[in-house]
Amino acid sequence: MTTSMDVPARPARSARLSPGQRSFALLYTASIAGGLLIWQLVAQGYSSFVLASPLDVLKRLWSLTASGELPLALAGALQHMMLGYLIACAIAIPLGMLMGRNRFINDLVDPIVNLVYAVPSVAWVPFIMIWCGLYFEARVALVVIMCVFDMIIVVSTGARNADRRLLDVGRSFGAGAWQRTRLVLLPESLPFLFTALRIGVVRAVNAMITAELFLAAVNLGAIMKQAAVRLDSAAVLGVLAVLCLLGLALQEALLVIERRICVWRPRTKA
């Protein structure tokens, strides 16, 4: 009869942070605290109409949240932001992979990508207004335009820099084109893919508020415009703080997913 004494105990996973992780957490916290302190000190020299203090911004955010105005605006903004971001991913990832691995497609598409990328994204707003109007479709289109070209450039660079020796090994073992892509090229390009996703998600947050300010003023853009008319700098800064936290949270989430998936990547020792 087997008892619990006969079963080898699994090594307990230490819940303590490594010195490198503790140092990173400390610096992360100190950076945010230092920024808030500098903001507080600078705000003391100005009227609250010009520059609200962090405490005033926090109070204003609480009132906007308690009234339900901010959560509803954020939920509406996230709809067109996430849809545009997903469309940009669906375009950029396969097209970037093709450009990175196929010389003909790269020579055909790369000049167009670079030409359009050189144009400031806001300059497309008048054309989007003509093509898509002022509402949901136009906001989604602006998010796609502001995300897709950055992502294409990063993904194509990753596919182009994939280790050819690994692809040759797959070919020598009889792997077809799809198997080499799925089993070799995609894993090899994952760091670049996640970099493209992180860049794209920040651009999506940027595009989301740009669309709501330059097109029909809705959601967070409407809150900012109405607050600017009332000289309510606390509300304007509160929305900006929400955008900063949203971008930071999405980037950190993608970093966590990348660490879980790319387990073979060497990590820097503290």
UniProtKB/TrEMBL annotation:
It comes from the Bacteria. This is Riboflavin transport system permease protein RibX. The chain crosses the membrane at residues 23-42, 82-100, 112-136, 142-162, 207-224, 236-257. The keyword Ubl conjugation does not apply. Signal peptide: none annotated. The gene is ribX_2. Residues 74-258 form the ABC transmembrane type-1 domain. Keywords: Cell membrane, Membrane, Transmembrane, Transmembrane helix, Transport. It holds the Pfam family BPD_transp_1. Coiled coil: none annotated. It is found in: Cell membrane.
